[in-house]
Structures
1.
Amino acid sequence: MKRLFYSALLAIGFLFTVTSCTEEQDFGQIDDLNITPTISSGLFYFESDEETINSAGPNTSFYYDEVTFEVFSEDYVAEHLLEGTIIYEIENTTSKPLRITIEFLNVDGRVLDAETFTIEADPSGILTREVFYGLGGKNLDILANTTGLRMSAGNLGDGTSVSSTDDPKIIFRSGGEFLFELQ
């Protein structure tokens, strides 16, 4: 009798398992998954003391550099870039008004975009500028086609004055935040 009871119980349990409410598994859901990571990175940094600026003389360039920037050179990366923001921060504690220019270059060395900053002499505070690329900003192709950065800084003042600030210098920082869509 017990054997019949357990067999019936097992059969009923099996029927409930087979006919229970289950959904068919959809392993194709990964195709519908969208991932949009934001990647942040430093781009360009330089600093120069007032002595270096004075030694270059008045109304001349005291800094020049050109660097390779192939972040977006891979087609996959360039094609999946949705938007980007480049943040510039400049602090001038020298007695000189200065001009800084950063240029975005393509593979042929042609200028795709440029940002120019005219900075007053100390006390000028910290200048911050955000430049948007993508919807509502500059053309996203500028970032996608950039393979180099060129930066120059010039003295717009005299070549002799010295700031009363301890350790007077110009500090230029830049960084970027880039949003990608991965599928």
Note: The mean pLDDT is 84.
2.
Amino acid sequence: MKHILLFFSLAFTLIACNSGSDNAESKTDTTSHTTHTTTDATPAAGENHMKNMHDAMDGSMQQMKSMSMSGDPDHDFAMMMKHHHQGAIDMAKAELAGGTDGKLKQMAQKMIDEQQKENAAFDSFLQSHKPAGNSEYGKKAMGMMTPMSDIKMESGSLDAMFASMMIPHHQDAVKMAQEYLKVGKNAEIKQMAQKVIESQPKEIQELQDWLANHK
């Protein structure tokens, strides 16, 4: 119904304009104003998605920093990786919501599906495992994290931002997993760490290739 009314409004404006009516100018201004308002809303939506992506990564890092390390490497790795995964999941959701590149959105969905399953496994382990030990693993792993200020974020588009942020995010996960395998004891958690080491470098390469082809 709104479209029909708009059609007649525009038609009336054109007729009135041709006849020199003063009323045409008013209606044209109204139509023009409406068009500009709609156009201006698009960049704002994109900025919101970018903010959501930035906040997702920063939020997961802050959660990891606020952790009280138990000294049990199995527990601390599982807890840290759970927060780290959640950051990736939220970043991927922002890409799905506002990204435009089909390949990156496909990668984002894959990350969500896989890391949600892994987080469920981490949750199950943490609920049943009683932490014990005096390992320095947690502190070492936190020292390996890339500070947000050191991350070069491509801000030309949400797609570029997603790719450029996910690369160091994955690299940190690999470093955490490699360090954990030096001291880890739980077979299930060690297997999950090994999966991170094997799978995430492949995604890093895909993201690097995408950025190289979209400069």
Note: Confidence is low (pLDDT under 50) at residues 1-41.
3.
Amino acid sequence: MMVFKMAAVDVVLNFASRIFDQDFGDSGEIDCAKCQILKDYLKLAATELKSAQQVIKILYEERAELNNLKNHVNPTNVTNRIPVNVRCWKKKSVKVNHISEISDKVKHKIRIVGDSHAGGLANELKGKLTLDFETQGLVKPGSPVGELVHLTDSDLKDLTMNDVCVVWGGSNDVGRNEPNLGMRALKQIISSLNHTNAIVINVPPRYDLASNSCVNDEVQKFNRKLVNLEKAYLNLSIVTVDSNRDLFTRHGLHLNSQGKAYTAKRLATVINGLFTISKSVPIVLKWRCLGDAQHWVQDLEAHGQEDKADKINMEIKKPQQEDKGGGKEEDRESENLSEGEQTMRTCEGVVGGEGGL
């Protein structure tokens, strides 16, 4: 096609050249003004045609060179990968991974299972517990308690009495007017967690509804049943959500960040209480010990043993000596005894050492 156009241009140029090369003489018709103007236009057209011919020729040559270049270039695979510098692969010092050390310190695993209310609770709780606790959450928004049963069956079998499973659900059951189904499923979950500690968070009030709505009435009934449920299971604890309106979102259905942090704080207190060993010290009433000693005195006097009675009276009236340290083992042991206990021990020694009554 390109060759055909170039040939046409050559024909026009040859034809125009033959016309311009003709000698028309000095005829007045040829030399008229209009013919001169036409002759100038033809010359201009011939010049433009020559320029166009040169441009077409140059383009044709460039296209031919481009085709030759494509035929001689070796095909290569183009990728977006950065070339690897072999020299950079040198042996580097290996950093110590502290994750294994942290996992060795974990003594208690905390697993949180619940609906949308439980979202973000694991992170809040993690900041309120020590490194002895590992916290993870399994949240299924919009689910009733019955759908949480499958989560507890499959993921919580490895928990022990050193661990805790937190369940937060029931709001969707109450909202669907199915509180009995929710309570039944909750009992099933707690029964399946008899190998570990279980904590249930009660259902928060619905501030997106009127306070006297039937849903909020059912919420209160559901929470009262939870309190009774705690009495039936030894491994169960109940955490109550604060009902302060400022702890809920503007919509009123969920807790805001402050409410979630406050709930996590209450939950952390209960969890720490499960694993805190408390030493209970019996409280001995002083008047009871002294009263028994005086009763002994009366019995001794009634049986004619005034000597023993006088010794016991002396022990009762003797002021308690302060321990100045460095004493005998008996003195160090008496530090933990009240004044009444020390008196009773002395009285027993007096009575028992001399044959009794």
Note: The chain is about 55% helix and 10% strand.
4.
Amino acid sequence: MKNMILGLLVVGSVGCSHMKEAPKTVEFTYAAELLQKVQLGVARAPASLELETEEQPSPRRVYFSALYQQYLTLGQHLNKKSDIQFCPAFHHDKIQTDSTIVPKVTIYPASQIDEEGKEFFPELAFNKKFSLRDYHGVIKGELETLCEEGVSDNYFKFDNLVTHYAGKKSFHTKPEAMKSVLKIPVFANFYLVKMLEIPGLHLESPEEKRFIKLTQTYWFEKYVTEASRMRNNFIKNKMVQR
């Protein structure tokens, strides 16, 4: 099992050796006990049978569209418009994503977060040395690589997950799976955005979660939903105490 997860984490380093060294990024915290409960619950649930009525986009297109929408979402919060004007490798997907409405997000003041609630506030990973704006710049760098070359180191990690681990129950039921998927930007960004998202202001589109369906990481989606609910309850309780 350790070899399986290790392979997922390092595949990018050998899948595209001509690219530059990976830029600095962050590790987001999560609630290990909640994750374990969610994984057990999803593992016990009967598999759903979904019939595909339309041709599905390729993993490359799914990865790009998800990453680009996440880039636009964080950019809106930072009051930073996208300066990616041309994207030869994903021209249609970029235009389509540009036309979507992105969710609004907000960051809760770090000074008001208690120690026991920190695991529901992934934005605490950012600091003066590496800010959310820096993180947003890293996403832009990968998007530029994708637009020019059609692939990136992180895409190869995603493709490896789709190809070799999506159908392995042993992977999806291990706590280490969370660390593995959070090494892939579309998962880390989805987690960050959903935790920061202002409740009730955004109608979710299928494209936002298509990468979850491809990788069969339904436990990840369930965890984010539950963690977001607990975060919002924490914030509401704080407001009541004022």
Note: The two ends are 48 Å apart (CA to CA).
